Input
Amino acid sequence: MKPASAVGVSKVLGLLLPQAYALDASRRLLIAGSTSQKVLLMQSLIPVDPIIGDVVVLLAISVVYVPLGYYAFRSGIRYAQRIGNLTRWV
Output
């Protein structure tokens, strides 16, 4: 059994994952009658339908994560070129 503090931390970390919002939106679309109940924390903060709230959060996450991923990828390539790991491919 997990301590209560670990469950709270897991919930907060789960809010950073786009899968939580994508799965919640698809569950709401597939199960009839489950669209009105707000389950995730962000849904109670955004005063719209939970499916629209999930889409808004997914768009906001992508605006942050896509440039961050591009920067991390480019930094990794530059580092590998600098230390000589990619000389065969470049």
About this structure: Helices lie at 4-14, 18-30, 41-45, 50-83. Residues 50-83 form the longest helix (34 residues). The mean pLDDT is 83.
